[in-house]
Amino acid sequence: MDKAEKEKTGKNTKRKNAETIQPPDETHAGVLHADTPLEEDERDGSLRPQNLKEFLGQKVLKENLAVFITAAKERKESLDHLFLIGPPGLGKTTLAQVVAHELGVDFKVTSAPALDKPKDLAGILTTVSEKTVFFIDEIHRLKPTIEEMLYIAMEDYELDWIIGQGPSARTIRIPIPPFTLVGATTKAGNVSSPLVSRFGISLRFSFYEQKDMEAIIKRSAGILNIAIETDAATFLAKSSRGTPRVANRLLRRMRDFAQILRSKSITLKVVEEGLKRLEIDNLGLERYDREILRIIIERYQGGPVGAETLAISVGEAVDTLEDYYEPYLIQTGLIQRTPRGRMVTPLAYQHLNIPSMFIQGNNENKGLLFQSP
Question: Of 204, 231, 265, which residue is a domain's last?
Answer without folding.
Answer: 204
